[in-house]
Every structure is written in C-alpha cells, then in structure tokens.
Amino acid sequence: AILANQIAAGEVVERPASVIKELVENALDAGATQIDIEIEKGGHKRILVRDNGSGIAKDELSLALSRHATSKIASLDDLEQIISLGFRGEALASISSVARLSLSSKPKAQREAWRAFAEGRDMDVKLEPIAHPDGTSVDVLDLFFNTPARRKFLRTEKTEFSHIEEVIKRIALSRFDVAFTLKHNGKLIKKYPKITDEKNKFKRVSAVFGNSFSERAIQINSQYMQFNLFGWIVGPGGERNQNDLQYVYVNGRMMRDKLINHAIRQAFEGIIDSQLYPAYCLYLTLPPDEVDVNVHPAKHEVRFHEARMVHDFIYRVVNDVLQEQLQ
Ligand code: ADP
Ligand code: MG
C-alpha cells in the first residue's frame, strides 16, 4: 500500500506548492474562514496548514489518511463528478507516503482534540490526545525524505517558495471571504484579512498584485445575457507588466484557458504595445450548464458550450473599457 501511495503521490505531490494547494483546498472544503500556512525552508523542511473548519472526528482521523477515504461523495452523481476532477480522496494518503505527516483536529462538538500520524514500517496510524482549537492542522515534515529521486527535483528554497506564493495568491483571489496568512521561516510574509464587503475586494487584489498593478487598474463589471464579467485590467501605458499577472476565474475556479486568453489579447491589440503583457484579474460567471470544467483538470481548461459567444463577450467588454480609457 505504501508503494501504491507513493506512485499516486508522484502525480498529486510534485513539489511543496502542490502539497499546499491540496491542504488549503481541504481546509476550504471544510468551511474554514481562517487559514494559516507556515513554511520552513521553501517547504522542504516543513509545511503546516491550520484551519478553523469543521474538523475531523477522532474515529475518522485514521481513515482520512488512507486512500480513497474521501468524505465528499454523497451520491453516484457526485462520484462521477469527483472522479473526473482526478485524484479524489488521495491527497492526504499520498502526501503521508512521501513525508512525515500528522493530522490534528477538533470538531466543535468533540471535547478533546486528537492527533493522528503514521509510524513504523507498516505505517500504522497512531492516535494521541493533543491541545488544538476547533479545526484542523496538517503538519508535513521532511517532504520526499524517503523518495530521493523526487527530492532531487526540488529547486532552491527561493524557487519553491515562489511557487508556494503563486498558489496562495491564486487561492486568495478566489476566496475573498476567507482570511489567509503565510509565514516563511518564522517570518510573516502575507496577511490577507477577510473581505466582507464587495466594495473592498480591490484591497485584496492590491495586496496580491502590488502597487504597479493597482495604481493603473481599471474595474470591469459587465453583464450580457447570462454572462457576467467582473474584475480589473491594466490599461495602456506604464511599465512592462509581468506575464504572470494574468488570472482568470470561471465560476470561481482558476483557469488557464486559450479561448479566454485569446479574447483578451485581441481586445488589447492595437491599444497596448504587444510587447507589453496585459495584466488582469477577471471573474467570468455563467450558468453551470454552459460550461464543462472537466475537460482537463490538470491543465485548468474549460469547454464552453457557446464558445463563440463567450469569446466575443469578453473581447467586447475588455475592448470597450480600453477604448474608453484612450479617450
Ligand atoms: P479529498 O479532499 O479528495 O476528499 P483528501 O485526501 O484530500 O481527499 O482528504 C481526505 C478526507 O479527509 C476528506 O474527504 C475530509 O473528510 C478529510 N479532511 C482532510 N482535510 C481536512 C480538513 N482540513 N478539515 C476537515 N476534514 C478534512
Ligand atoms: Mg483533498
């Protein structure tokens, strides 16, 4: 079972940033409103994710560490959807097969907190009482300590940390209603307070993208039939943008979609020097049955049923806003 988990781990757990993505997504699934992430040495040494979500009951702790132990399948329909998203119910087991993982948790309704960790050659799961507030902590030490081949692929602390920051930025911009903190080697690096008022969303965008974006950002909020496009773009002029400031969310999920990128690029053509990357953070909302997000889970691609209409809608909205700016 350990070997099977390690093979699965190769797919889920590529580097520290992918561990963090899985752990933070679990915390969000558990309804957390506060998520604190602590990293040591770019995540090679330690990754700790603590949340204030629903918690895991004592008798479900060891199960959560075993493969296919997802609690998120309630019906066959769910199952199909979850399978198509890939690797469901495997993240914790996979991570635990390539690191020293411990899971501490306390559901509100349970008086004591418990900690579960796998130990020994058979990776038997041990339980011990621990002090812990309502919610869950996952502590991941010595990533890839038992898989030297994987460990060799880790880059410098700085590089791994920048991948981690990128993952957290993307998630932070998908959940304004959740507070996040990020510490690296004991130092507080990022603090994103919870945004409760729609009007204050831009505060988080500025915190994530920095001044050169936020000083020039133009807000978009357009509706056409059942499509809505909301967000910010950086208009013509100014210094060269970084091409990693291109975020698109479709119905709340981060996507890297060719069609959308093409529509945006086209909207910028002739307005901004093509040598300058346009920067944007955009949220496209449309009815769920207009979009198929299961095409390429790993590539973050979507398929729109009305592809042409979506393309033209985005093109027109972005282009209009840019034209207006030129006048
Ligand atoms: P999945 O998220 O696909 O269900 P995981 O391996 O990531 O699979 O997690 C296994 C199970 O452990 C989850 O289904 C959930 O029940 C539980 N779990 C994991 N992390 C948390 C958390 N932070 N809070 C509450 N429950 C959690
Ligand atoms: Mg998960």
From TrEMBL:
UniProt-recorded Gene Ontology molecular function terms: endonuclease activity
Domain DNA mismatch repair protein S5: 205-323
Assigned keywords, A-Z: DNA damage, DNA repair, Endonuclease, Hydrolase, Nuclease
Role played: This protein is involved in the repair of mismatches in DNA. It is required for dam-dependent methyl-directed DNA mismatch repair. May act as a 'molecular matchmaker', a protein that promotes the formation of a stable complex between two or more DNA-binding proteins in an ATP-dependent manner without itself being part of a final effector complex.
Family assignment from sequence similarity: Belongs to the DNA mismatch repair MutL/HexB family.
Protein's name in the database: DNA mismatch repair protein MutL
Species per Swiss-Prot/TrEMBL record: Fluctibacter corallii
Species lineage: Bacteria, Pseudomonadati, Pseudomonadota, Gammaproteobacteria, Alteromonadales
Gene behind this protein: mutL
